[in-house]
Amino acid sequence: MISKGSPWYEYAVQTRPAPGRPEGAVDRMEWGTCPGAGPGAEVLGRSLRGRRVLELGCGQGQNAAHLAERHHAQVTAVDLVDLQIQHARERYGEVPGLTLLACDAMRFLQHTETVFDIVYSVFGAVGLVDPRPLLAAIARRLRPHGLLGFSVPHPGRPGAGATSGPQPRHGTIRLPDGSRHPVARWELSVADWRRALPRSGMRTVTVRELGHPGRTHPTALLVIARRN
Predict the structure, then answer these.
(1) In sequence order, what DSSP letters do the residues of 61-93 get, joined into one string?
(2) Strand-pair partners of 209
(3) Rounded CA gap, 121 and 183, in Å?
(4) I need a labelling partner for 99 at 20 to 30 A (CA). Which of 48, 57, 76, 204 fits?
């Protein structure tokens, strides 16, 4: 688990939801940095009812709860920060079909025996873990022709630089209190994602750039792939 003092733990502390009754699921799944802009859950498939879905890096569980409650999927959502899972259970613990687990993404993929129809990550484990072993581990837990969807920070956004080798780019994240903390990210170019996926037994279906209306530079990449 992530220890106190890490930027991800501090982010969980600073974004803790206000105490109150458990919340219902949000109205929309978000992939980018601008709520309401870009696609929603439809990119995961026309019908998600009964589908076995895995989220890697679920944060406080908004997207996972949406898929379970509004689309009737069977969703397992994992996050490395146990405080985030605590928050997610406080908000969405009563949503039918939703399982929330505090677990490292790679460890979960290596030990689960479940085969999933869909795996997805929204600014989660994909991009924060070496993509070579992570994509291979995802492919092993996807059914044939199963779908992987993930959004990551756009490597071409101002101040960023794509990485193509085994080493991550060292950058920073800004927390709600304004403080900045160092983090390591694998920010591959579109071409490098397209090369990395086939090496893991998957093929790219679409790559979309997401951003804010009226802004010049996209802020996120949304990649959809399928296992061969």
Answers:
(1) -HHHHHHHHHH--EEEEEES-HHHHHHHHHHHT
(2) 221
(3) 18
(4) 204
3-state secondary structure of 45: coil
- Neighbouring C-beta atoms of residue 172, cutoff 10 Å: 12
Helices 82-92, 7-14: inter-axial angle, 10-degree rounding? 30
**pLDDT per residue over 117-163, tens digit each?**
999 999 999 999 999 999 999 999 999 999 999 999 998 876 666 66
Amino acid at 196: A
Taking the C-alpha atoms of residue 56 and residue 119, their distance in angstroms, rounded to an integer, is: 8
Cα distances from 147 to residues 87, 113, 116, 169, 176, in angstroms, run 28, 18, 9, 27, 33
**Backbone torsion region of residue 45, taken as left when φ is above 0, otherwise alpha when ψ lies between -120 and 50, otherwise beta:** left
pLDDT in tens, 191-204: 999 999 999 999 99
The DSSP line for 191-227 is: HHHHHHHHHTTEEEEEEEEE--TT-SS--EEEEEEEE
Tell me the C-alpha to C-alpha distance, in Å, between residue 118 and each of 20, 47, 144, 177, 180.
Answer: 32, 12, 11, 35, 34
